[in-house]
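Model it.
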Amino acid sequence: MGLPAVSVAGVDKRFGNVEVLHDISLEVEAGAVVSLLGPSGCGKTTLLRIIAGLERPDEGRIDIGGRPVAGNGVWVPPEKRRVGMVFQDWALFPHMTVERNVGYGIAKREPDRASRIAEALELVGLTGLGHRMPGTLSGGQQQRVALARALAPRPSVLLLDEPFSNLDTALRVQVRAEVHALLIELGVTSVFVTHDQDEAFVLGDHVAVMAGGRIVQAAPPAELYARPASPWVASFVGEANLVAGQAAGERADTPVGSVPLATAADGAVQVLVRPEALRLVPGEGATVELTEYYGHDTLYVVRTDSGVQLRVRAGAAPVVARGDRVSLRYEGPPAMAFDAFATPNPTPL
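Modeled.
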């Protein structure tokens, strides 16, 4: 395996007395898409800007394509890093045509400048719109212009900072799918910032979860969902029922019965029970408090007779209604068990 396309090692960043990044290390393989996922204020955009060269790290080192660009006395300015960036607000120049916006990062003396602009516009489906002004385009088209501008200089790494956040829900899903397909087709190494778990999982080959200025877990989406490192990560990357249990080896007794465990444990634990791993059957032991039908599945909120509230997801149309009495059983894979006293909140700096 060759050198990673992006390597971040031991990066710290402070603004005044406020530490916003602490000991961040991350590697991005060539051609991969990595999602930086975390709540607002966790430092993910600051990390992206440090990779781009828009901020300087206080400690640590950044390599791009095996070449040092920051740290240990080295500083390579943004325009010499071969990095493209798509900003959250797209940052288009309103007084320039689409064509001039897209060509902004290509030197005017480049002999193939016009063909590269045309190629970038074709890639994002905007052929023929080069003469238009950004303000005359729809939100989705403006987002594509920003992407074309980032791709036109043929960067080795593409950085995207919540690029879909200004789009309405339906357009967001459409444009996200188009961008995802384009990134796969081009094979361009990409780092993508989002606070949306669905977005991170759809786009990312690898997801790095950030909280309190740290990377708290980095893994492929399926592994992250199935084996989160903490109760907080479990809740942040998807719906999670964290139920009290008593573990003995590879099983735990819980309010939903005996649950197999991914790792043997003993004593009091919190067991991660995903809503789709529970099944409802007519019976006793719990009451349906709420039913929400989404078409592709139904969400039930159920409360056991002992007072434990649980969320259950099942496919197709509702099979029970609010007020019905039901029994619950676990039908999922071996579950994660956490210390009974583990905090549900991220660790602050």
